[in-house]
């Protein structure tokens, strides 16, 4: 991996995405950076990306599954932006982690992503800008 890798975001699943985004905007003065709907079927999610507005900050992303129930609170998804998602997935496996969802190319939104788990099973999203 290179020094271009940075901790980029944390994701939390929510039931009411609009209400939760409004809470973080009001309570912590966060601003909305982007909205996305990605995936298909039971894996489809809606996301609202929030940031403090400094431009270089990590993001808080509230997201929800469109076609399935929200998982219980308590677990977050850690996110890393990396220069090479394939190399990072290999590094995860070599360090004792596992692949949860293989690399998916999403050129229409400019990302390639993979989901991996650390040795204790915590979910990590690895994103590469295309």
Automatic annotation (TrEMBL):
InterPro entries (alphabetical): Anthracycline_SecMetBiosynth, Glyas_Bleomycin-R_OHBP_Dase, Glyas_Fos-R_dOase_dom, VOC_core
Residue stretches making up the VOC domain: 6-129
Pfam families, A to Z: Glyoxalase
PANTHER family linked to this entry: GLYOXALASE-RELATED
Protein name per Swiss-Prot or TrEMBL: VOC family protein
């Amino acid at each position: 991996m290179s020094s271009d890798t940075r901790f980029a975001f944390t994701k939390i699943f929510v039931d009411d995405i609009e209400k939760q985004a409004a809470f973080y905007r009001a309570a912590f003065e966060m601003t909305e950076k982007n909205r996305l709907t990605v995936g298909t079927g039971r894996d489809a999610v809606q996301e609202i990306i929030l940031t403090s507005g400094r431009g270089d900050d990590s993001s808080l992303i509230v997201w929800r599954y469109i076609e399935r129930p929200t998982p219980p609170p308590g677990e977050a998804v850690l996110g890393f932006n990396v220069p090479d998602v394939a190399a990072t997935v290999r590094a995860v496996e070599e360090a004792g982690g596992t692949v949860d969802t293989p690399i998916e190319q999403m050129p229409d939104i400019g990302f390639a992503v993979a989901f991996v788990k650390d040795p204790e099973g915590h979910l990590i999203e690895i994103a590469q800008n295309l």
